[in-house]
């Protein structure tokens, strides 16, 4: 068996994962020439890049199928329609992995799985991943990007709105104090306990700390790959919507929350969001200085443990400077008549050949 390293890029969410996954999707030939092969066995439907997010769900206990409704929805893309289907799929999982890896050319020395949903999985699932791949790989590298928690939570707000989760920004921000997914020391320790500390590479997601200020360049430098230099730099994707767009999106979702239009999978909902975000570009909602300071304080002990174990050369993992934020937050003017008219005109232009869709969305906006 060729000597191979499995590279597990496990997030964290809102830390450049989509950019890495888009690069994997678009540049497989260049990567293959460099001895690198992204794995496809757990790839979700490709929309924003080659990710392996389904792996986190494939390894859940069988009993979760009945008790966790979201699990069945996630597994549906694999043709799993029942608990019996799930049991059958899990029984064949090792063979599925073996089949893909055995077909890979012998010159490939690094295999990649990238999935930000892996950031928060339990020790049981981490052990299952090691069991799946240890027959095929003699080395493991776990790459985990950590992002200052206020930046993470701020970016997450756009994602939550896009998934029709209704919440005022201030309430959203306050609700993430001490949030378990921001306790990076605990999450990384789970992987170190199973794979060993030498396999872990925590990286800080900030332009000052990333190689060339770019998460894709940083990731492939860790792998010793020159592929990024050959095909060009990455582009920023999955950018947060502006504060004005977020404000209108929240009002829109409130207005349609009891209708099919509220579902994030609804095509008209998705089109409205894209038009909205193009109409109002600019900075996203931001916390006040006090909100950011309180949030960071709730993670202070966790961040210090993270520093002591993984970044002992640094005085702090993250800067505590919150001066980029305002002392107060105002929504004045966001839902103004002028902005309403601007949005209506955008909808009329973009949907000029689709009167039914146009009229439905314009009617909602006019009611706000």
Search tags:
368 residues, 49% helix, globular, 5-stranded parallel sheet
Largest sheet: 5 strands, parallel
Shape: globular
N-C termini distance:
64 Å
What's the β-strand tally? 5
What is the share of helical residues? Answer: 40-55%
- The chain-level mean pLDDT equals 89
Strand and helix order: EHHEHHHHHEHEHHHEHHHHHHHH
Radius of gyration: 22 Å
Judged by helices, strands and strand pairing, the structural class is: alpha/beta
Which percent band covers the strand fraction? 5-15%
Looking across the biggest beta sheet, what order are the strands in?
2-3-1-4-5
Question: Are there runs of 5+ residues with pLDDT below 50, and where?
Answer: none
How many H/I helical runs?
Answer: 19
Question: Overview of this structure, please?
Answer:
The chain is an alpha/beta fold. Helices cover 49% and strands 7% of the residues. It has a 5-stranded parallel sheet with strand order 2-3-1-4-5. Helix 8 runs parallel beside helix 11 and helix 14 packs antiparallel against helix 15 (267-279). It starts with a strand and ends with a helix.
Short overview:
The chain is α/β, with parallel strands linked by helices and 368 residues long. Helix 8 runs parallel beside helix 11 and helix 14 runs antiparallel to helix 15.
Chain-wise SSE layout:
Elements: E1 5-9, H1 17-26, H2 28-33, E2 36-38, H3 55-58, H4 64-67, H5 69-75, H6 83-91, H7 93-102, E3 110-114, H8 123-133, E4 139-146, H9 149-162, H10 169-174, H11 184-195, E5 200-204, H12 215-222, H13 227-231, H14 243-256, H15 267-279, H16 289-298, H17 300-310, H18 337-350, H19 355-367
Parallel strand pairs: 1-3, 1-4, 2-3, 4-5
Helix pairs in contact: 8-11, 14-15, 15-18, 18-19
